[in-house]
Amino acid sequence: MPSPSWRVLIVDDEPAARRGVRQLLRAFPEFVIAGECRNGRDVLAALDALAPDVVFLDIQMPELGGFDVIRLRTPERMPAVVFVTAYDEFAIRAFDAEAVDYLVKPLNEERFGVTMRRVLKRLRAARGASPDPALVVSTPRGALVIELGEIDWIEAADYYARVWVGPRSYLIRESLDRLERRVGGHGFVRAHRKAIVRVAGVRALRTEDGDRLTAVLASGYKIPISRRRRAEVTAAVRARA
After folding, report:
1. Model confidence over 11-38: pLDDT tens digits?
2. 16 touches 42 (CB < 8 A)
3. What are the structural domains, with CATH classification, of the chain?
């Protein structure tokens, strides 16, 4: 079992919510709980006294909420932040505050595991390195943050774009051209007029039906490559080999 490497501060005015985070953290021995707080004012003092690497921060608390804490502390002086709330209406604002993730109560083990992988990625990154941007999509259960490394490909869908993560897809109200500008510098390449693929997810390039080039993704999808994009896609995939 690895020794604890990262210090965690849990902040929530509800004891049951703090206990829930504590229990879920047991599956991640790389983390040690440095302390717990019940309100925003205590957090401001604990950040200096305990020097946590990550804080699970409730958004709505008496007197000072999670956003108030960040405003007073300033984002530059905050550790990695995971917002925890009973509501999903604050998601966009949370990521504007540079949060690593946004969890909606009640917490579940699977979703918490996704968050912890993101936290570890952020903490292990070289200091000063900017994390890759993420996409925020809407689902019937609320806002969902999708890390770029989780995406297989993105396709145009009228005025939307459809983001594919394995067999699942999510609609985002953004044009494919705009998305290409956002993700193009993070390992994605245009396959044809209506599709962008993540280069690291391409398992093979195959010629089919005579001379048509196709990208075979790890998820099993086959994405045709236009003649115009053939050289660019081939070079990007070979550079990853």
Report:
1. 999 999 999 999 999 988 889 999 999 9
2. no
3. 6-131 (3.40.50.2300), 147-240 (2.40.50.1020)
